[in-house]
Amino acid sequence: MIPRIPRHNWDRRLLRALLESESIFAACQPRTFFSSLSATGARRSAQTRIKSLPSGTRCSGGSHRHLSTYAPSAQQPPQQSRKRTHMCGHVDVSHVGQRVVLCGWALSARKAGKDLVFVPLRDATGISQLVYEDPHSSSSHSAEARESIRDALLSITPESVVRVSGIVRKRPTEAVKKDQCGGEVEIVLEGFEVLNAADPLPFSTAARAKLPSEEVRLKYRYVDLRRSQLQDNLRKRALAAHTARNYLQVQRFVEVETPLLFKSTPEGAREFLVPTRHPGQFYALPQSPQQYKQVLMSAGLDRYYQIAKCFRDESLGADRQPEFTQIDVELSFAEMEDVMEVMEGLVKQIFNAVIGWKTDGPFPRITYEQAMRSYGSDKPDVRYGMKICNVSEAVGHVSDDGTVVEAFCVKGGANKISNKAFEKIKEVILTEAFPLLGGKVDPKDLYPIRVSGEAGWTGKLGFGLEVSPAGKQQIEAEMGRVEEGDLVVVNRRLNGYLGPHTIAGRMRLHIIKHLLSTGALSPDNEYNFLWVHSFPLFTPTTHPARIPAGTEATYEATHHPFTAPLLPSPPSTTSPSPTTQHDSLFTSPGDALGQHYDLVVNGQEIGGGSVRVHDPHLQRRIFSEILHMTPERVAADFNHLLDALRFGCPPHAGMAIGFDRMVAILCGASSIRDVIAFPKLSGGDLFVGSPAGVSGQALKEYHLKVVE
Ligand code: ASP
Fold first, then answer.
1. Where are the domains of the chain?
2. How much distance in Å is there from the Cα of 641 to the middle of ligand 1?
3. Which of the listed residues 169, 356, 493, 663 has the most CB atoms within 10 Å of its CB?
4. Phi, psi dihedral angles at 193 (to 5 degrees)
5. Going by DSSP bridges, is the β-strand pair 254-255/303-311 parallel, antiparallel, or unpaired?
6. Is 619 in contact with 562 (CB distance < 8 Å)?
7. The pTM is what?
8. What does the pLDDT average to over 544-556?
């Protein structure tokens, strides 16, 4: 007879061994993995085992990882009977009366009565409610034995991995959880086995638990990923990828993997370099597979795709990671129209498969100029109206200083946006960068008009301008009626468009955000997709108006240097050679538009692409004459591409979708970190602790020296 151990003194090893024993509960049937020993017998058996553990087996000192390495006892039932029969989320009323074996993570046990314990059990599919009711109250089991069984169950640490056996039964009506799959049933426990006893977790995974900082969550990412929300995100991501593959396969695309050890070439962002053991020789991780996919068109693949990893050494943000994923495609003999058709189909299929969203008809299209004019953004959020209008003429603005006056109307805004709120928003705007202005906004150029009284907003404006009744009519023809109680935001700014937004555009977005946060505007949760196309091919590095006389403007490619210019008319056999056709491109590159298109949804760009330059002479001239690359640099960085273009390369076009961003939208996640299994923070990967130093020996092998 084993002396009774007071509960609070139970040796952890004994308790664990007890829990691990196959026989804590009497089994109702032979061939379950719980033998039919009595509870007291189980304790004895457990102790015997501990004693007989081979030396070196670790089950003491708080390490529970080897509990499952016990030598199987002679009575161990056949392996098959221990096998999981169902997933938690799949057990429902159709299984009532059946015996099931479930495996998963035991959540906090709850004692609901003297001999009544509930333990939620979670696996990848959902949660099952396990119920322990003393089955032996009228049997020969002693009260002591029953108590130890119950206590053993109660002492399972939350998030321990267990295997359980039990009978499915309907929950009492008042306990039914209609919104939960399997919420109509519970499992009456017959036995359980602890496969891995968890140490106390760094934080709780419960749905309503307060989460620790993101740093802690990322350090223990495997715990964080147990939360149903993140699990759900990763499953949606997998479904989106699967749907993309299926769709593109049907559309005759070939999935091709391109190298991750690439070459340093300037494509816009800073790269990650990879040292080699050859002195001074580096690989670079690709910013995108852009050049490889173009070359695959020269290789005759016709249609390429890849769910590609890309790397850019940029500052991190809610939608920026140094490594991220794109659905990358390229098509031969294709124009903008063809790419838009294929990609629209892809996006619609993914949105439908993952969240059941459907829409009829093609996505609307607007040019960059229209987007900037009406919404002050190259990725306009077209929900909530408030279109921006150029009111220069209507207010009698004479643009002798190269400025224009823009305005937009916030319906009912006079009472919804206080002066204080407006000033606060304005302060934010003053900190934002506007390339057109060289980064500065003059506070005097931005102000609100609260429309009141008969005259509405006629009369004097700031900067000495006046809205006449005729001007008012002219403005309202474009902006819609401006009524008492409205707020009109007016901005005077340098004419032209440069970069991603205007001052009025940013103001409009901040005001929308403010109205949504105060409840003055109801959120519009529809997905408003649209294409923005015909961007300027090159972006001046300084605004032309600011370039000192006699100095030549310098440009960078707006998308990337492989984007084809928009031709005034389609080429024909009688037209001059493509190179001469593009002469104006070289005389005034700042005026050229590119065959570049972006896919935008609710103010977020989720993808972009272009028709490519497939004429090697034109591509070479762009590199040297517009982007001012030296012949040596062109040769070193791009000869491989220029060669591929000159040995029979078809016209081609392509696009890439930011996969992480798209999945974040599908999941309603505010950061792409919530849809990436192991994302990075500015400190790097907090789970593995990278980046990290390397040994002096490794540095030597790579011919590197760390300079403090
Ligand atoms: N490679 C481009 C990017 O990463 C997409 C494309 O032009 O296809 O933005």
1. 7-196, 229-360+658-701, 366-522
2. 16
3. 663
4. -140, 130
5. parallel
6. yes
7. 0.85
8. 71
